[in-house]
Amino acid sequence: MSSLIPQSCFRPKWACLALLAGLSAPALAGTASTQDWPDARASDPKAMGWMVGSPPPPERTVRFDDGSYFRFPAMRWSVSHFRELMPTTGVSRGLGAPAPLPRALRDDIDDVTFTPAGSALRMTWAQSLPANYVDGIVVLHRGQVVYERYFGVLEDDGQHAAMSVTKSVVGTLGAMLVAEGTLDPGKRVVAYVPELAGSAFADATVRQVLDMTTALKFSEDYSDPDADVWAHAQAGSPLPKPEGHTGPRGYYEFLKTVRKQGDHGHAFGYRTVNTDALGWIIARVTGRSVAELLSERIWRRIGAEQDAYMTVDSVGTPFAGGGLNTGLRDLARFGELLRNDGRAGGQQVIPKAAIDDIRRGGDKDAFAKAGYGKLLSGWSYRDMWWVTHDDHGAFMARGVHGQAIYIDPAAQMVIARYASHPVAGNDANDATSLPAYRALAMCLMNTPRDAAQPRP
């Protein structure tokens, strides 16, 4: 989450690398992965007593301005308390009653077994949760809650950072506008945002932004103190800029400085600034910020239990690339909306054409050029969703430190997960998470429809 990086993090050090919601797997491969981190039990934020007391003791106090709030293990507390530390804007659920989520809780899911990628040892679903520092997880099957767990300081009425899962939410808004004819995917970005005429986005199409096949001279090499990602972080930070700062002072200003490198449409390149650009396009064509549009078009219509919120830059622009924070069950409701072809509460909330476009996926050859490795081989990226192209038609929203929405249409399953893994890149948990999701899908597919009776 580059907007969340304090001034003390405008230099490369691991405590600050973990902040960035836009980290890609190749960029993070090996980053701090050999660190001997305390396990989930030893780093439990509730047991450690972070921010407990009036005031809390200095050694258990976390602050935004010095970066301490995102140093592991303190970050395990922070991801459930961002609103207490930095400026945000609300995503209102409206005034209607929340839509109930039927419950048919099962007692056999913890015992589901699978083999992690690259391992010969079997693991249970229950063992995988602490292995991935899970803070909360909800599993829906056929629209019913069959499994729900919370750990550490995340409670069922709490909120947690979605990080780059935000990109898929914003991408869904973009896909909606395309399906409705408000956005023309073949038009150049500059047709909607003339202010980007001097940037790399000027001759990129809306589709290339949605699928991240733009050719940008934008380094996300977090070990390089001169990488563009640090300038992006500085621009998006709501804190006062350092003395003598003459660069951009917000997300929109930063986008004007991004330069082109190569040809658009040739290769997939995961860059957070693409979602920032999409957020600007959406705001321009709708007259709503992404937070306002998300509330109006989705959050008020899915029966959300809680308001969500988004972090903002110094002028209140929501961080489209990674600033969303939600309740876990509401994240599951959003995933269920996608599984149900955009329908919720008897209404077509998202055009089915938008859901179909996401599920079809993007250009596999372009995706392969990003070099994500075997676990993501054959995948693609479309409308800011990760599409597996497996025999179940599964697709995902993915965020650093273990945030995920996993939708398996064949299994009629949605998994919403929040986590605080000490290593940001998804390559740190994919070997366990992806086989676990598949194993659970197979278990649920083999369950007779009337096997689980709803319980209060």
Total helical elements: 16
Terminal CA distance reads: 38 Å
> Per CATH, which architecture of the domain at 177-274?
Up-down Bundle
The top-level CATH class of the domain at 177-274 is Mainly Alpha
> What value does the Rg take, in angstroms?
21 Å
Shape descriptor reads globular
Report the CATH topology name of the domain at 177-274: Methane Monooxygenase Hydroxylase, Chain G, domain 1
Q: What percentage of the residues does DSSP assign to strands (E)?
A: 5-15%
Write a concise synopsis of the structure shown.
With 456 residues, the chain is of the alpha+beta class. The chain contains 16 helices and 17 strands. The C terminus is likely disordered.
Structure description:
By secondary structure, this protein is of the alpha+beta class. Among the domains are: 2-82, no CATH class; 177-274, Methane Monooxygenase Hydroxylase, Chain G, domain 1, CATH 1.20.58.710. It contains 16 helices and 17 strands. It has helices at 14-17, 25-28, 45-48, 75-78, 125-131, 165-179, 189-192, 206-210, 228-236, 251-255, 272-286, 290-299, 328-339, 352-360, 364-368, 430-445, and strands at 88-91, 113-114, 123-124, 134-141, 144-150, 160-161, 216-217, 259-260, 308-311, 324-326, 343-344, 347-348, 380-382, 385-387, 395-399, 403-408, 413-419. It has a seven-stranded antiparallel beta sheet, sandwiched between helices. It has a four-stranded antiparallel beta sheet with strand order 1-9-10-6. Helix 6 (165-179) packs across helix 11 (272-286) and helix 6 packs across helix 14. The chain is globular and about 55 Å long. The two termini are 38 Å apart.
